[in-house]
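Observation: inputs received (chain + adenosine-5'-triphosphate).
Thought: call the complex predictor directly.
Action: predict_structure
Action Input:
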Amino acid sequence: MKSYQTPRGTQDLLPSATAAWNKVEDLIRQMCHVYGYSEIRTPVFEDTGVFKRENDSSDMVNKEMYTFSINNEDSLTLRPEGTAGVVRSFVEHKMYGAPDLPARLYYMGEMFRYERPQKGRYRQFNQFGIENIGAKSPYIDAECIALGYSIVKALGLSQIKVLINTLGDATSRRNYRETLLDYFKDSVSELCPDCKRRYEQNPLRLLDCKVDKEHPVMKNVPSLRDSLTEESKEYFDKVLKALDGMGIPYEVDDRLVRGLDYYTDTVFEVVSTHPESGSQSAVFAGGRYDGLVQYFGGPEMSGVGFAMGLERLMLLAEAEGIDLGGVPSDDVYVMALGNVEDAPLQVAVKLRAAGYRTSFNVAPRSLKAQFKSVDRSGAKVVVIVGESELAEGKVNVKHIATQMQTTVEISHLVETVDNLLNEEGE
Ligand code: ATP
Ligand code: MG
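Observation:
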């Protein structure tokens, strides 16, 4: 018989892990809430053109997409990232016409990239991300970084570093492109095949090459800084000043160009400095984009956002020894004594309706075996449903902490449990 495992690059998250995930997701949602961001959910697949825009030179678009077509219908792609789908939706639903912009949106969900799996790098992984669309201000860029940074801090991560750079406006980028084309003119033939493609498609991305990083020509690349217009420099200074004001430490890294082609002005990457994070160190990364709203048929409008890799966030939390807890304990365990049929279920349902996490004994088992289950469940209160008490509409209630046991009417059970657990909480 064939046995099946998770496909390469994917993983099962079992209950012992999902409890921690839920906690982190709750923290993220709460932080988005106070920052005024609301959730948007878009499809997991989109028309391929949503992600694959003309002349895009990124690895993600060129090598990592799960693209398929069924029955000769138009080509579809499993989303490799969140931004494109959100901007597509922003335009489709004419959110650009809202009286108050920017729109503050966030998403959380699975992304798919055909990559070589390793620790912190999967083929199906989860991202949380935000998109702030419809206004351009250095203070919004700073807000965006602050939101991501607050989440990482609230989680308790300490070994992280904010790297930031500016790609400048269109004019700055045009200047720099010319500078790079000229600089790499004679050496491009010695670089990796991807770099050759980048040279043609988007020379800025040459700086992002992980293969040729050590090549001598990469060491003396002219700085983007020298190609920036005055406006771009001023804009960037304001972003930095706002970060200073919020007490967010950063390092300006003028080699940071980011993997996607649509970025302009501010780009940033928040990395872990923990020794275990290795080359999968980016926790969240993003930047400002122009042109994307227009690409989808909307007006000329700028946006800024980031995406955070949740698997990486979880791995780092673990590496830093942050305890996010495991499977939650029960509040109450309902035991069965003798032939009491469905009574334990009925009792459990009452307690569940009152909000208590409750388990009940199913198959006939010895009291000893049932008490072992109580131990494992972590229940603080045990309800014992016995044949003779049941005949009088009563059950026994045992409080684990004090070992006190009483007999109560089933109609007063919830009240009794309320009292026991509230006293304990005090
Ligand atoms: P990298 O340089 O590590 O490949 P990237 O530039 O491709 O990252 P982005 O497209 O910016 O990553 O995605 C944002 C975040 O999503 C990353 O910082 C990372 O935390 C996470 N991420 C990206 N790819 C993967 C993956 N294959 N598995 C798990 N997390 C990922
Ligand atoms: Mg990548």
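Thought: report the result.
Final Answer: Residues 129 and 307 are 4 Å apart (CA to CA). The first helix runs from residue 15 to 34.
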